[in-house]
Amino acid sequence: MIDINYTGNNDHNTNALGYRAKEFSEVDWNNSYVIQGCSAVFGLGLPNDTDTVSECLSRKLNKPVINLGISGSGIQPQYMNAVEMLEENIKPLGVFIVYPNIHRFSLMLDGCLENFGPWSASGHNKKYAQWMS
Predict the structure, then answer these.
(1) pLDDT digits over 55-100, tens only?
(2) CB–CB of 43/53 below 8 Å?
(3) Rg of the Cα atoms in the chain
(4) Dihedral of alpha carbons 20, 22, 25, 28, sign
(5) Among residues 41, 40, 39, 101, which one has the least CA distance to residue 65?
(6) pTM score, two decimals?
(7) To the nearest 5 percent, what fractions of the chain are helix, strand and coil?
(8) In 42-98, which ranges are E strands?
(9) Residue 133: DSSP 8-state
């Protein structure tokens, strides 16, 4: 999966790559579901992991649901992670995708994921936000 540690969300439990999930080496992918999306899936603002969409789904399905939410992202990182799962022969029980707002866009710049959107105020982000509007 792509490394999202740039987000700096130190107030959440995250794995080595910055996802709100256990370490991927510990995941039984064949017996788990995956959910992808933006901050709504990540659970931004939720202090307890048990309140995230992935954990609520996990309780309903009685199976692990791996949270691949990326705060502020567009659909591009979800596509990149889906391709990587295919390349690594990862076959979960199912994949849920919560599509982010169409006005969000993500790019890999200098080895880091940069998210652009209407909240952007400076630099590349400001230019993108102006272009989008």
Answers:
(1) 999 999 999 999 999 887 878 888 888 999 999 999 999 999 998 8
(2) yes
(3) 15
(4) negative
(5) 41
(6) 0.78
(7) 35, 20, 45
(8) 65-69, 94-97
(9) -
